[in-house]
Amino acid sequence: MAESLLEVNHLKKYFRDKKGFLNKNPKPVKAVDDISFFIKEGETLGLVGESGCGKSTTGRMLMRLIEPTEGHIQFQGKNISEMSQAEMRTVRKDIQMIFQDPYASLNPRHRVERIIEEPMIVHNIGDKETRKKKVRDLLEVVGLNSFHARRYPHQFSGGQRQRIGIARALAVEPKLIIADEPVSALDVSIQSQVLNLLEDLQKEYHLTFLFIAHDLSVVRHISDRVGVMYLGKIVELADRDELYENPKHPYTQALLSSVPIPDPTYEQEEIELKGDVPSPIDPPTGCPFHTRCPQAMDVCKKVVPEFKEERNGHSVACHLYDDQHMAI
To answer: 105-130 pLDDT, tens per residue?
Structure first.
């Protein structure tokens, strides 16, 4: 069994609500509210959920682009949540990020050569000639041509720009890559090409991925394990096939019921969730999902369910699987 490359324990991120200068006691926006998980070396952990559930905030906290409010982040056995920015600079060589928007994540004033070379300059990797050669090699690796190094980002399509972003992430030979919805801004025909590229690169460079997305079919294609987030919390976490074939949490069941199945003879009952996602400024008491849950009980309104393992690494936070409350 592979060792854990990354461990997250009780991670929280609360933002201050700055609405109105007369609001002297603003409530915090609970973007990420006490989550714990680990990623084993060489695997891909998928993180899914509706927009605003805290997925991207989680990814940025792992790189300390956003400072955690509470909790610990262990990377290769080191507590990076307490490191200074100078210490984090060396760690970021091993943790890189692929951003969602391939248009906004590349500097339009720089040529592709400079964009990919910059991380190597920051981390003092190689001399000028070595870096130039590596840039051209990386462009070939991600499916572009070496002569593309002299062009600017606006001269490329969205899929090509995302390949440039991937090449930039690979430039410093990281161990962990946080992919924040890397294909959501791309055409469907291009998405599969980029996903296949990421899988090939994982095998070739022995990479570990945190893959953040809202598209459940994409996550199933690329992930080894999948975590489901709702309103800042992880409500279910399991191996990919176990989660898709045996979802336990009502929210996961509803998400999966909405995924189209390419079989016209298969009739699938879609679970309709009523109401809107509650505000992270004023989340519900008890289980955060109880206001929309078709199976909500009285206990769900009062008691926060414990996130615990049911069997074989399948963890869920739901009172439906709590013997104590079921017996009441």
So the answer is: 999 999 999 999 999 999 999 999 99
Q: Does any domain span residue 319?
A: yes
C-alpha separations of 8 from 34, 58, 100, 136, 213 in Å: 10, 10, 22, 36, 19
Boundaries of domain holding 309: 4-94+174-326
143: in domain? no
Residue 58 has a CB neighbour count (10 Å cut-off) of 27
36 in Cβ contact with 10 (< 8 Å): yes
Residues 94, 97, 101: CA angle, nearest 5 degrees: 170
Q: Which tens digits make up the pLDDT trace of 156-205?
A: 999 999 999 999 999 999 999 999 999 887 888 889 999 999 999 999 99
> According to the model, what pLDDT value does residue 265 have?
65
In terms of DSSP H, where are the helices of the chain?
55-62, 85-91, 112-122, 128-141, 158-170, 188-205, 216-222, 240-245, 250-257, 323-326
pLDDT at 312: 84
Indicate if the pLDDT at residue 328 is higher than 50: no
Facing residues of 236 across strands? 228, 316
Q: What is the CATH number of the domain that holds 222?
A: 3.40.50.300
In a domain, 166, yes or no: no
Distance CA 3, CA 6 (A): 9
Answer yes or no: is 152 within a domain. Answer: no
The total number of structural domains in the chain stands at 1
> Whole-angstrom Cα distance, residue 132 to residue 286?
56
How far is Cα 125 from Cα 119, in angstroms, rounded to an integer? Answer: 8
The pLDDT value given to residue 16: 82
pLDDT score of 327 more than 50:
no
Largest CA distance in the chain: 71
pTM for this prediction: 0.90
